[in-house]
Design goal:
This protein has 280 residues and is of the alpha/beta class. It has helices at residues 10-22, 38-50, 68-73, 78-85, 98-101, 114-118, 121-124, 128-143, 155-168, 197-202, 204-215, 222-234; strands at 5-7, 27-32, 53-58, 91-94, 147-151, 173-177, 239-246, 262-269, 272-279. 41% of the residues lie in helices and 19% in strands. The strands form two sheets. Strands 1-4-3-2-5-6 form a six-stranded parallel sheet, with helices on both faces. The chain has a three-stranded antiparallel sheet with strand order 7-8-9, with helices on one face. Bound molecules: adenosine monophosphate (AMP).
């Protein structure tokens, strides 16, 4: 099978971009932190269907980690990632180092994230979204993609990406892709690699809780539903950070059911922090 081309520098990326422009080829972009799984692959496949070329970035972004141990433990599996991408047509990997992506005087001006950035992940991971905005800003500027693909698993991140695209005036169209799950219901995540067999079982309480909340819609009040869901959750082996039912646009917590809401959860399973959500 054909090996995927890998580029490491901003200069190589600019040359690649230039060639696509000369041939009027469209470019789809899938930013990742590597340790690729079928969730990532679903984004990449969608991009290959919709664009002439696809660029996949693989970069564990230190700026978005508020916990140095989490950064240290984050899986880095570049050669396995490249093997996984073999055979995909017209895909190129961009795997820069930190200096390449964050040159001195990179011209980045932070944006105000407002209420979208303060709640849920923003409340529990101070500085996380500021780091996401910085890396995506620098990547978007370099890549100048026609479309960029993001997973709904990181629902709040997707909302922030839409904000930054508007704020900085990027021409890239943002495409949201559904969450890919294991047959067990566990949302795929690079961090799942760090779970042992027992923890993989324990972690199923996340999807069970989300499905329980969905099943209570319009049958019990939101506050009753959350109280009962938290009770059951706390009887399991994970440690809950938050469980919230919010408006999909504003991310404000809801008191009453609406036509559409999203239930978001974050919890620690052993030393691994997991997030998930369900839109219903
Ligand atoms: P990450 O490597 O975790 O930064 O994720 C890179 C992209 O893949 C982000 O847009 C994520 O939302 C997306 N992603 C991660 N896990 C999944 C999943 N299980 N299903 C769909 N997309 C995902």
């Amino acid at each position: 099978m054909s090996k995927v081309q890998v580029i490491h520098t901003a200069e190589e990326l600019q040359q690649f971009r230039q060639k696509l422009n000369e041939n009027a080829h469209s470019l789809g972009f899938v930013p990742t932190m590597g340790a690729l799984h079928n969730g990532h692959v679903s984004l990449i496949k969608k991009s290959t269907e919709e664009n002439d070329y696809t660029l996949i970035s693989i970069f564990v972004n230190p700026k978005q980690f508020n916990n140095s141990e989490d950064l240290k433990q984050y899986p880095r599996t570049l050669s396995a990632d490249l093997t996984q991408l073999e055979g995909l047509n017209n895909c190129v990997v961009f795997a820069p180092d930190e200096a390449e992506l964050y040159p001195q005087n990179d011209g980045f001006v932070p944006m105000e994230l407002g209420s979208t950035g303060n709640v849920l992940e923003g409340a529990f991971r101070p500085g996380h979204f500021e780091g996401v905005v910085h890396v995506v800003h620098n990547l978007f500027r370099l890549v100048a993609a026609n479309k960029a693909y993001f997973g709904q698993k990181d629902f709040q991140q997707l909302a922030i990406i839409r904000l930054l695209t508007r704020f900085y005036g990027f021409k890239t169209t943002i495409i949201a892709c559904p969450t890919v799950r294991e047959a067990s219901g566990l949302a795929m995540s690079s961090r799942n690699m760090r779970l042992n067999e027992k923890e993989l079982q324990d972690a199923l309480i996340i999807i069970e809780t989300l499905r329980f909340v969905e099943s209570a819609k319009n049958k019990r009040t939101i506050s009753e539903t959350l109280a009962s869901a938290k009770n059951s959750f706390n009887a399991g082996n994970l440690s809950l950070e938050y469980l919230a039912i919010v408006d999909p646009e504003t991310l404000c917590e809801l008191k009453d059911w609406q036509e559409n809401q999203i239930c978001c959860i974050a919890a620690h399973c052993g030393s691994v922090r997991l997030i998930d959500n369900l839109l219903f």
